[in-house]
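Propose amino acids for all 413 sites.
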């Protein structure tokens, strides 16, 4: 890479780092605010809160990195063109490759980053987060459940306690278990306590009743008990095998799932879609780079607007990624959509490269000559609009007089 390439790469690389840090920070804050209840109401430490939110960062970077690269490319191309550097390089006779090479190299680096995250970092962090959540649930009734609040621990499992005694006894206990829609159970007990036996945990409830609902809502069976033991083993780490979802699995587990995996037996399409999503997602950084080059990669004068090209680039990237997400969802149901998952970014790369390297540059020129898609606020002022219209009219009249100096123009003069 020559000096010009290193200069452009420095601008684009710096913009990429800033964009990915800013976007990741904003998204991380929004996600962290959702988990703030972990400290305020569930009795966990600040370190655990930070650790959990950090484990979610790879999944955020996996989505944000291509977008940050696209923003960096638009910023860099617009900057070097506004400073007339792109015009000077082109006027010196340099080939388009001189300008394009730094952006393509940056796109390849972003592709490696996305591939590393999607194939290794993200599954490992998701597994660690899943294990941590299960570990927190190990002490679900000791720390998490707050007095006077209904706390959902798992899908369909809700706890409520009226008070907590100094010795750890739970007073006024309610457990609502609707994990099995065909058999909804509700437990009411005067008091209860958590008993541990090795790696297992049990909730021992005293002086209560169990309300069992089967079939129609009005068919409810009430069973009173002096003591009842509720198994909490499925909420503990080490009490059994943790069931990971496709996003939390390593590639070896996705390619060769366990025959005993009930989730795979129910949703085999999710495994297929996850495998190909991790590979096809690595193509989007290059697609976004070539779209940027196709719309803003050739020189313009300072009087030529670039608003239309920027709008077209944003629309193209949005459509491309939307089709990609739709193809992933279709692949869960139909295997033919796997080809669409790869075809979408490849069409973006080939089509945008064809335009960027001159074969279709006329499309970009048409965009520049079209009416502006970006409204300048200054044009909305009546005085400026009238002066602009008046000046444009005078200019057209003067041009016509120069071209037709005789005849009616002469007589009119």
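Proposal:
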């Amino acid at each position: 890479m020559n000096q010009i390439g290193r200069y452009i790469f420095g601008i684009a690389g710096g913009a990429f780092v800033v964009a990915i840090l800013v976007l990741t920070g904003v998204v991380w804050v929004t996600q962290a605010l959702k988990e703030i209840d972990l400290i305020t109401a569930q009795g966990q430490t600040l370190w655990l809160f930070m650790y959990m939110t950090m484990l979610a960062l790879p999944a955020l970077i996996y989505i944000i990195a291509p977008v940050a690269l696209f923003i960096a490319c638009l910023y860099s191309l617009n900057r070097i063109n506004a400073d007339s550097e792109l015009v000077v390089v082109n006027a010196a006779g340099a080939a388009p490759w001189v300008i394009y090479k730094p952006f393509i190299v940056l796109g390849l680096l972003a592709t490696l980053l996305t591939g590393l995250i999607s194939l290794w970092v993200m599954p490992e962090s998701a597994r660690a987060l899943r294990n941590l959540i299960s570990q927190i649930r190990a002490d679900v009734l000791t720390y998490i459940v707050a007095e006077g609040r209904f706390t959902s621990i798992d899908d369909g499992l809700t706890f409520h306690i009226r008070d907590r005694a100094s010795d750890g006894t739970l007073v006024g206990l309610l457990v609502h278990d609707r994990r099995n829609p065909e058999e909804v159970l509700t437990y009411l007990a005067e008091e209860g306590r958590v008993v541990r036996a090795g790696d297992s945990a049990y909730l021992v409830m005293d002086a209560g009743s169990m309300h069992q609902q089967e079939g129609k809502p009005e068919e409810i069976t009430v069973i009173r008990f002096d003591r009842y033991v509720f198994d909490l083993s499925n909420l503990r780490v080490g009490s059994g095998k943790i069931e990971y979802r496709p996003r939390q699995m390593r590639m070896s587990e996705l390619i060769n799932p366990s025959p005993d995996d009930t989730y795979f037996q129910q949703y085999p399409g999710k495994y297929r879609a996850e495998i190909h999503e991790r590979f096809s997602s690595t193509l989007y950084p290059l697609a976004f780079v070539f779209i940027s080059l196709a719309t803003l990669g050739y020189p313009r004068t300072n009087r030529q607007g670039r608003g239309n090209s920027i709008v077209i680039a944003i629309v193209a990237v949005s459509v491309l990624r939307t089709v990609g997400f739709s193809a992933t969802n279709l692949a869960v149901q139909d295997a033919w959509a796997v080809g669409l998952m790869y075809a979408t970014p490849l069409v973006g790369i080939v089509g945008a490269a064809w335009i960027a390297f001159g074969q279709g540059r006329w499309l970009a020129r048409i965009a520049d000559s079209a009416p502006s898609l970006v409204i300048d606020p200054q044009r909305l002022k009546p005085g400026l609009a009238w002066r602009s219209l008046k000046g444009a009219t005078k200019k057209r009249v003067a041009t016509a007089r120069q071209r037709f100096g005789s005849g009616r123009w002469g007589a009119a003069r």
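The first strand starts at residue 151 and ends at 154. The chain has a mean pLDDT of 78.
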